[in-house]
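Final report, Chapter 2: Outcomes

The project's central promise was a pipeline that accepts a single protein chain and returns its three-dimensional structure in a standardized token representation, suitable for archiving and comparison. That pipeline is now operational. To close this chapter, we reproduce one record exactly as it appears in the project archive, with the input sequence first and the structure output second.
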Amino acid sequence: MASAFARHLTLKQIRQLAGGTSFSRGQAYCAEGRVRSLVAHGDTLTATVIGTEKYTVRLAAENNTLSHRCSCPVGADGAFCKHCAAVALVWLEAGQRQANEKSSGTTPLVTLDDLCPWLVDLPTSTLAGWLLEAAERDDRLREKLLRQAARATAKGVDFASYRKSIDRATRTSDFVDYYGAGSFAEGVREAIEPLRELLTETPEHAAAVIELIEHALVRVEEVMGNADDSNGEIGSVLGELQDLHLAACEAARPDPVELATRLFEWEMRDHWDVFYQAAETYAVLLGATGLAAYRQLAELAWKKLPPLKAGDREGYDGNRFRLTSMMEALARTSGDLDALVAIKTKNLSSSFHYLAIAELYRDAKRSDEALNWAERGLKAFPKDTDVRLLEFVADEYHRRKRHDEALALMWRPFEGRPSLEYYRLLKQHADRAGVWPQWRERALAFLRDRIAQDATGKKSRMNFGWSHGSHGALVRVFLWEKNYEAAWTEAQKYPVGRDLSLELAAIREKTHPADAIPIYLRETETLIAQTGNRSYEEAIRHLKTLKALHLRLGLTDDWIATLARLRTQHKAKRNFIALAVGL
């Protein structure tokens, strides 16, 4: 067995890696014989595990650490899942069994490492026959053999075989789902790896490699439109293709004007941003001549775009987005700040666009121009102004000792949406002027006035469903200030919502346990009514807290009566009743 695993896969380590639930489920899978085709080769273990579907597991001892990968959703997120645990446990059992077999004189388990000396001595014809049989069943092996054969036997490089290999790797019969995306991506990588080798070994073929890479990009992008690439597997292949494309261009050194035209066309039609801001990425290869040609093409298209001003609906326009990024990349390449600003002024449809220009001038130490653009944004958007723009102007005002104007600006978001977030923002700016006590009283008075309006049936201007309006905001403010008594007092006046109630209960149970009991009991009954094991588990957690609070107050009889009532009331919910055993 692989000696490196002896350091990483002890029973204790497997349990720590998997955690309690995955470890116990892995034990069950191991006992049920769900681990198939376990293969040890060097410091790597591979196996198939039969779960809801067939999952592939790979464990490897690399650089004195254990890496793990499983094709299941949990494993794809990087966790040491139950399938990994099952494979590790089977390997551990096999190792123990092997040790026993050696001591008893019987034949130990065979690994791929054990096969190598035997295979070396076999006739070539026998090996070729077995390899062909395997290639009939294994698409990837067959593709690899075909590529190698074409390269070895052709008088020159058979570029058609590379193209066919790409076509086969990117051919799909249906939608590529989440679980198939990784396999598809790996197949494409295998198909393009020979292009990398070709570029390294025979750079004189770089021009042909460029054509093949672009063909692969087209094919992969077509699949992207009909795939679930939530995990970014296929997208990462596009990135690798772009890197290889750049390397091929560096080797081929195509005509700068032709390259500029090629890149511009790609960027304009590319929906996956593979060649996003290509002028910067390929600047060295384009040189002055290529950049001039690229700029001419971009400017010609740019002139056709209508400017956007306040009140215009921006929406999403792919051409506008791509052309804007091109023009900005060209301006950055030239280092001309005013040219970059001129490009940004083509779209002033939101206050954020004014902020972007102001930040450019601020970063260039041109603070007067920065403030001028920011104030123009305030004037163009007197309502619903982006808070970041308000903050920018307020910062500039503070720097100029215009504190009253800065605070007047920061009052606007709090007045429009009185929440803890904007209360804290207001405090930050009031502290800079040393006037927070006055502004705090004003803010609290405003919240109380809004609460009174809500109570008399007047509608708030905003919907604060997450915190029950201004009243919830006031409670959150007091909690943030650690004024827990004031928060509790306010919460008794009006409902504050489920999450806020539980937050208050967690604080209140430390000093006033009796106040927390009805909140936890109400939440427990809500969870039980929702049904489902997750809800039941959460309900049990609250019941344990309730038990501790009752016992702490000497209310043992009340606790027994409460638990008995819940068991009777929900006796039909067997999973809950089973979890409640032992309370």
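Archive annotation: The first helix runs from residue 11 to 31.
This record, like all others produced under the grant, will remain available to the consortium after the project formally closes.
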